[in-house]
Amino acid sequence: MLRDRIFALAVCALGVLGTAAFDPGFAAGKCEDATVQEAYPANRPPPPKEKQTADSPVSPIKLFQTVEIKVSALPQLTEAECRTKKLIVYLNGIPFSKLAPYVYDSGQNLVRFEFKPYPVPDSTWATILGRPDFDSRPVQISLGLEGEAPFKYGIAKQPQLQILDIPWLLIWAVVFLLLLAAFLLCAARTNIIRDGSPLEFASGKAPLGTFSLAKWQGAWWFFVILSTYLFIGLVTGQFSSSINSTALILLGIGAGTVLGSAIIDVRKDTADDRVQAKAAAVTLKERIEELTAPGKTLTAAESTELDQKKSELEKLARRSENFFVDILSDANGVNFHRFQMFAWTIVLSIVFVKAVYEGLAMPTFDTTLMGLLGLSAGTYLGLKIPEPTVPK
User: Fold this and answer.
1) pLDDT tens digits, 220-255
2) 3-state SS assignment for residue 28
3) C-alpha span between 40 and 68 (Å, rounded)
4) Is residue 377 classed exposed, middle or buried when 0-12, 13-18 and 19+ CB atoms within 10 A define those classes?
């Protein structure tokens, strides 16, 4: 008799457990009742609730900071029924499963997690951190079970997220500007992006050679990639994994163009070319002296000819006129293949910077786009070989 009663009680217990296991509402009732009540930096707790108003200041949350979340029914969330699924962080309703929340104080219903982007931030992070500025932006921080909707959100005033760390931004900005200023000083006074010094017959005080399109392109991509690399590292903290294959190829195209241009220039700089340039310079100087003789009044045509002869003499002597004339011209004037290379470099660099600003990752250009830039560089090098050194 007693044995029959024990058996009946066991059957009833198994039935109750089976209901708990197979009825979603049994276990979900406790889990779904959780409500996120507060979210704030762990080292800056919010003011007491009775002192909070709609206008109360909210301490901004910064990246790489520990965030504390107060959620109701936390003891129930730690029970076996709610532990069948992983507890994850939701930002603006988007699940971030790699952010690992942990129970900090079950008695106070407190959960903590580190607000840190993944080792390699994906496109999901761009929805939260993309287009950063100096202002804080509201962000909805919640919790939920993986694969389900986030818990109820009971925070009246959303936390503010400050993406840019101003002190570090100033430090890296100073470093970058110092490097840029040093480069510009060298560009103005040395041959760092020039083809070399003018020929011996060039006159003038401390003359400088013409600017090189190839060297300019290499320097341009260097500073574009350096600035975006520092920007990504500043926001996401990823200084070791942000450089991608596209950045390396762009730097490689710039370096290859510089190398090819230097080889062509060395082969073209022969003794015969220098003799021809010197002879042509004598003729140009004689004509310039005729046009600038004392008391001579120039016609419109002669004035145009004088400007042209002076420009030809500068090119012949390999002396700089100005930056844009130098990089877009050969001995006979502006060439389209030089302009094409200059234009595509500017356009693609703008696309590159915009993609980094919006997505916080260096973009991956497809082979067609990379081939376009390579084709421009190749056309420049190919047509540089027959470029005249003496004006025709």
Assistant:
1) 999 999 999 999 999 988 888 889 999 999 999 999
2) helix
3) 6
4) buried
Contact between residue 323 and residue 211 where contact means Cβ atoms under 8 Å apart = yes
The distance of Cα 323 from the centroid of its chain, to the nearest Å, equals: 27
Confidence grade of residue 33 (pLDDT, cut at 50, 70, 90): low
Q: Which of 294, 343, 288 is nearest to 314 (CA)?
A: 288
Domain ranges of the chain: 29-162, 167-384
Strand order in the sheet with 110-114: 102-105, 110-114, 66-71, 35-41, 152-153
The reported pTM is 0.79
Q: Of 193-202, 258-267, 327-336, where does the model show the most confidence?
A: 258-267
Any idea which of 15-19, 135-139, 165-169, 319-323 has the lowest mean pLDDT? 15-19
Q: What mean pLDDT is predicted for residues 282-300?
A: 79
Count Cβ atoms within 10 A of the Cβ of residue 117 and give its class: 0-12 exposed, 13-18 middle, 19 or more buried. Answer: buried
Please tell me the distance from the alpha carbon of residue 224 to that of residue 242, in angstroms, as a whole number: 14
- Our CA angle for 384, 386, 280, nearest 5°, is 105
Per-residue tokens: 74:
């936390």
- Mean pLDDT score of the chain: 80
Mapped onto helix, strand or coil, the DSSP state of residue 113 is strand
The DSSP symbol for 47 reads P
Tokens 């994850």, residue located: 88
Task: Check whether 321 has a pLDDT greater than 60.
Answer: yes
DSSP class per residue in 242-298: ---HHHHHHHHHHHHHHHHHHHHHHHH--HHHHHHHHHHHHHHHHHHHHHT-TTPPP
Compute the 3-state secondary structure of the chain and give helix, strand, coil in percent, each to the nearest 5: 55, 15, 35
Max alpha carbon distance in the chain (Å)?
139
Round to whole Å and give the CA distance between 110 and 91. 18
Element (H, E) at 41: strand 35-41
Sign of CA dihedral 291, 292, 295, 299: positive
SS3 369: helix
Backbone angles phi, psi at 330, to 5 degrees: -110, -160
Instruction: Report the alpha-carbon distance of residue 251 to residue 218 in Å, rounded.
Output: 7
Which helix (H) or strand (E) is 66 found in, with range? strand 66-71
> Which of 65, 62, 291 has its CA nearest to residue 162?
62
Interatomic CA distance for residues 69 and 42, integer angstroms? 9
